[in-house]
């Protein structure tokens, strides 16, 4: 349906924005590490670029992580990148 496609498109936009604009991936990972498997953390840390790290972290949070991991991710993101969160929330209300 149109609504489902819209949600998928928004999720894709948000993913792309997060990958492109989140700069403190390691800081987010440090704060999430108690909720994330150590091997997954190591894989993120081993990535070369911050974009690659954020792609991996995004997959951990949104594909593998449960509600607690997602919630904590957004709490951390609000602390570290409040303007980005505000911008993405603005896109959701459009």
Automatic annotation (TrEMBL):
Pfam family, any one: CARD
Main location: cytoplasm
CC terms in the record's Gene Ontology section: cytosol
Keyword set, alphabetical order: Cytoplasm, Immunity, Inflammatory response, Innate immunity
Any single GO BP term: innate immune response
Residue ranges of domain CARD in the record: 14-90
Full protein name: CARD domain-containing protein
Source organism of the structure: Scleropages formosus
Lineage: Eukaryota, Metazoa, Chordata, Craniata, Vertebrata
């Amino acid at each position: 349906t149109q609504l489902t496609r819209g949600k998928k498109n928004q999720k894709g936009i948000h993913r792309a924005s997060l990958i492109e604009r989140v700069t403190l991936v390691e800081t987010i990972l440090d704060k999430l590490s108690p909720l994330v498997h150590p091997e997954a953390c190591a894989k993120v840390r081993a990535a070369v670029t911050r974009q690659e790290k954020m792609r991996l972290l995004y997959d951990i949070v949104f594909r593998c992580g449960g509600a607690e991991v997602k919630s904590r991710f957004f709490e951390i993101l609000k602390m570290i990148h409040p303007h980005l969160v505000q911008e993405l929330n603005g896109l959701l209300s459009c």
